Amino acid sequence: MLRLRSLLRLLVVLGWLATLVALAVVQLLGDRSALGTVAMYAPRHLTPWVWLPVVVASAFVAWRLLLASLAGFLVTLFGVAGFELPLGRADRDAAGEPLRVVTYNTDRVRDVAFRIRDDLAQWDADVVALIDCKTEVADTLRRIAPPGLFVSPWLCVVSRLPLVSQQAMPRAVVARGMAVGLGRLGRVHRFVFAHAGREVPIVVLHLESPRTALFAARNLDLSELPADHRRRATHSALVRRWLGEITPTTIVMGDFNLAVESAIYRRDWGDMTNAFSAAGTGFGHTLFAGRHRVRIDHVLVGSAWGPVRAEVRRGYPGEHEPVVVEVRGNRRS
User: Fold this and answer.
1) Of the candidates 25, 23, 38, which has an alpha carbon nearest to the alpha carbon of residue 228?
2) Which residues contact 264 (CB under 8 A, 6 or more apart)?
3) Confidence (pTM)
């Protein structure tokens, strides 16, 4: 028993050292260094379970070791792996009518067209944004003839709210961005809808992806990460600058290609409330690419909104999954 206790004590110490290093890398170095960026997009959901054998063994040896290993498990689960609890969920009796929105990167999958009618009925949303909406999906939406439909080369938006205005990023700005390699700079669109007697700006975007650089890093080639970071940081900053001041009723949603631990995300979007971080439960992974799972599709809301419910639906074609969010007006606003 003495040897087992000594072994467990050593495992707990080593586990805590590994946990603190991983916590620092993910939370402090994400999109600030090559190591932090790779770790941020890595399959972090696997890291907490390394603690479980130590937790189980400690339960039969010493309660102090049990508490230390449980604490290590929880820090890894929430701080490293990004598990969320709905601790910031708004009161269900918050003021105002509920607003329900969905963002879904369809990955240009044709099969979405065969199920979109049922998906719209299940989501029961006021505004649905389908990113990378394939022609077949747009044609199906036209046949369904919903109350409001907007179609562009990269986006389909279905709405049952009155549309007040809509605006794409100016072509001159897009052209300048594309000249420096920002091919997705034009993938941002601002809508203004009427809801419950007030105007609600809803911005849909699709930011640059780190996919190519991460594939190279998987083969131990980190040389593409610095340039990729500059490109993604520039893209995000330009989009935020174009949007200008975020009003309290604004909602920004879409494929950010950024995890919430990203320094880019925190710099440009950290002043808004992430609906899943506030009202979701679980890891909330929205991208499934082999062993890699990461939450990069977000719904962000201004201070006038309180997230009531946020979930990531499963079982959809393609690598991405839809994010379904319900918000209500904050009493404070």
Assistant:
1) 38
2) 31, 229, 232, 233, 236, 258
3) 0.94
Q: In this structure, which long-range contacts are made by residues 23-30, counting pairs with CB atoms below 8 Å and at least 24 apart in sequence?
A: 23/75, 23/76, 23/79, 23/80, 26/79, 26/80, 26/261, 27/79, 27/261, 30/259, 30/261, 30/262, 30/263
* Tens digits of pLDDT across the chain (333 residues): 667 788 889 999 999 999 999 999 999 999 999 999 999 999 999 999 999 999 999 998 888 999 999 999 999 999 999 999 999 988 755 667 899 999 999 999 999 999 999 999 999 999 999 999 999 999 999 998 777 899 999 999 999 999 999 999 888 777 777 766 676 678 999 999 999 889 999 999 999 999 889 989 888 888 899 999 999 999 999 999 999 989 999 999 999 999 999 999 999 999 999 999 999 999 999 999 777 789 999 999 999 999 999 999 999 998 999 999 999 987 555
Give the separation between CA 28 and CA 36, rounded to whole angstroms. 8
Q: Are 257 and 296 in contact (CB under 8 A)?
A: yes
- The letter for the amino acid at 54 is V
Indicate the DSSP class of residue 324: E
Q: What does each C-alpha distance from 155 to 30, 75, 257 come to in angstroms? A: 29, 39, 16
Tokens, residue 81? 């792996």
Between CA 11 and CA 5 the distance in angstroms is 10
CB 187, CB 206: distance < 8 Å:
yes
Architecture of domain 99-329: 4-Layer Sandwich (3.60)
Query: Alpha helices, DSSP H only, in 244-287?
Result: 263-269, 275-279
Domain boundaries, the chain: 2-80, 99-329
Joined together, the tokens standing for residue 246 give 């975020």
Are the C-beta atoms of 271 and 246 separated by less than 8 Å? Answer: yes
